[in-house]
Amino acid sequence: WGxxxxxxxxxxxxxxYDVICRCQGGANAGHTIYDETGKKxxxxxxxxxxLNRKSTCxxxxxxxxxxxxxxxxxxxxxxxxxxxxxxxxxxxRAHLLFxxxxxxxxxxxxxxxxxxxxTTKRGIGPAYASKANRVGVRVNELRKPDLLRERLEVLFDxxxxxxxxxxxxxxxxxxxxxxxxxxxDPFICDTVEYVNKAFKEGKxxxxxxxxATMLDIDFGTYPFVTSSNPSIGGVVAGxxxxxxxxxxxxxxAKAYTTRVxxxxxxxxLFGDLAEDIRSVGFEYGTTTGRPRRCGWLDIVALNYxxxxxxxxxxxxxxxxxxDALDEVEIGVGYKDPDGNVINYxxxxxxxxxxxxxxxxxxxxxxxxxxxxxxxxxxPANAKTYISRVEELTGLPCxxxxxxPGRDAMIVQQ
Length: 413
Known about the structure:
Elements: H1 6-13, E1 19-22, E2 31-34, E3 40-43, E4 56-59, E5 64-65, H2 67-79, E6 88-91, E7 95-96, H3 99-112, H4 124-132, H5 145-162, H6 170-184, E8 188-189, H7 191-200, E9 205-208, H8 233-239, E10 250-254, E11 256-259, H9 271-280, E12 293-298, H10 299-309, E13 313-317, E14 327-335, E15 341-342, H11 349-353, E16 356-363, H12 380-393, E17 397-401, E18 409-411
Parallel strand pairs: 1-4, 1-9, 4-6, 5-7, 6-8, 10-13, 12-14, 13-17
Antiparallel strand pairs: 2-3, 11-12, 14-15, 14-16, 17-18
Helix pairs in contact: 3-4
C-alpha cells in the first residue's frame, strides 16, 4: 500500500551502487532517510541514494517533475552539505508538472465530495493526463521558449475550460520557467543512453520504486490508485532498461500495513489498537502529514504483489513497532459474505470491500528489539513471526528493519 520504508533500504544498499534511479511517480512520494549521524532527510523527487557521495542519482523519464519543489529539495540537501552538482541527472524525456496540475488535482478532489480518491494533491494525475493527452511539456522542451509558450497556452486553456474557477497567470509562469530552464539545464541528460551505457560498462545500478504495487494504476484498487505503474513494468517503461538486465528484486513490506487515502483495505484496524500502532510507528505521511490507516500484514495482497513483480527476497520493515503487543495477527485469506474463503486479490473494489480478512494469530514477543542487530539475537516469537511470513510468501526475509536509523537493519545472509 506504500510507505513501507523503501527509502531507508535504498539509502543503506545504495552505498554499494554506482547509479541510483527513480523511474515513475513524482513529488507524491515521500522517502525518509537518516545519515550516519542520525540526521533526517525527507525526499520526494531526489532518489534516496543521494547520501552516497560517490553515486550518480538519476530521475528517469517515467516521472513527472515539479521543478520548483525539486530545487527546494536540492537547496535543503546542499545546505546540509550534500552536493547534487554533477551527481543528479534529470531525463530530457521526463514530463513537467506545473502548478496548474496541482490546482486541477485539488479542484477535482473537491468535485468528488464524498467519493474522494484521497490524492496527495501534488498534481500527479493531471500531469500524467496531460502526457497521455499529448499536450504535456517534456524537459527537453524547456530549451525551446516558443514551443513552451505554445504548450502552456494549451494547458492553461484546457484547465480553464475544465475548471472555470481556475485562475492562472500564463505570463508569470512563462517568466518563472525561463529562469528554471536556465537553472535546470546542467542537470538535463539523455538518461536512457546514460543508464544503458552504465550497465554495459559494468556499473551497479539500483532502481528505487515509489508509491506501491497496490496503488498501481493497472494492478491496484482502481480508482483508488496513483497514476503511474509502481510495479516492475514501470522500471522498463520509465527508465528504458530491458528486463533481461534485472538482477535481484526486493519487495519492501512492513510487518503490518498502512494506507493513505480512500479505498478498500481488508486488514484495516480501528480504535485503540490502530491508534497505538500509528503512534508507535509515527504513521503520518512524509508528503502530506496525513495520518495513515493501519492494519495487520495482508499476505493475500503481498503474494499478489510478489506474483506481479517476481520478488527474489523481502525487506520486512518496522518489526519493532509490534514489540509491545501480546498477540500479532497475519491476514492469510479473505472471506466473502457467503462464508467462502478466497486467496486471490479481486479486481472489483466493491467486492473487495465486502470481504473480511481471515487471520492467523501468533504470540507477541513483548521485548524491545530496536537495539538488536543479528537474527540470532531476536526473541523466539519474533523469529517465529518472520518464519511464518517466509512460509506464506515463499520468500526469504533477507532484510529486517528494527528501527528508523541506518544501522537498524538486520541482514540475513
